[in-house]
Design goal:
The protein is of the alpha+beta class and 280 residues long. The chain has two domains: 125 residues, Hypothetical protein af1432; 151 residues, GAF domain (Beta-Lactamase), CATH 3.30.450. The chain has 13 helices and six strands. Strands 3-2-1-6-5-4 form a six-stranded antiparallel sheet. β1 and β2 form a beta hairpin. α2 crosses α7. The radius of gyration is 21 Å and the shape is elongated.
Length: 280
Amino acid sequence: MEVGKELKLSEGELEALKAAALLHDIGKIAVPDHILAKPGKLTPAEFQKMKVHPVVGAEILERVRFPFQVAPIVRCHHEKWDGSGYLAGLKGEEIPIGARILSAVDCLDALASDRHYRRALPLDEARLAKVVAFDSVALCVPRRGSLSAIFAAGSHREALASLTISIGKGVSGWAAGANRPILNGNPAVELCYAAAPCRSGALGSVLALPLAGAMGPVGVLTLYGAAENAFRAEDLMMLAGLGGHLASYLEKNSGEAGTATGLSIVPQLAPAPEVLRLVH
């Protein structure tokens, strides 16, 4: 409910989210107990049986005739932003906002709670910064042929906040121009574009993820590691889901489009609270 309030959901949407949060797993009454209580990984056949619970739950709740849309949230709470979820394979904003919120919070709750197949993770270890470890981070957007940082955090925050990088230059600028990610790039070719000096303590590697909107690239999310080759291919895959969320936010808040580089011009803006929480 607190996430819904911060995202400024309407009163009806909040009531639907509240009911769905309490009832989203009611469809598990159709799943055999030996599957629900299994201490290990489910077999493909068992997982297929588990996958019926969102639709069964939605069908049950449709009969209740709530005055707000509860059933669609329950039906879609196992869809994923990249389209790899179930049952319909919805992606992005095709998924109801209530289902997106419920899925994210339910995942955090699952990671931070004891399960019969594993112990709970400490809350801080269930967050992105512990899944993809980094020293510093910058979110840059294109503006008149260059990238400018609108958000920076970490040990080198001041330097990264002062970044202005020509498209095609540095690590982030190359990722934006080529619309391709860079894994373990050289931070030296990036930090030379910072107006503020770097604090003591060298950075050893860079992971740059271009953020693609419907009309083209809208920014770059760049993580900086203290060690050489600090990032793995799995880290890039993990960031891809967040990238879609950030791209959607930036595109909605972008200004005019159509520069010589084909990139949007995005005005100075403060990232929304949900974006900052995800980055952290």
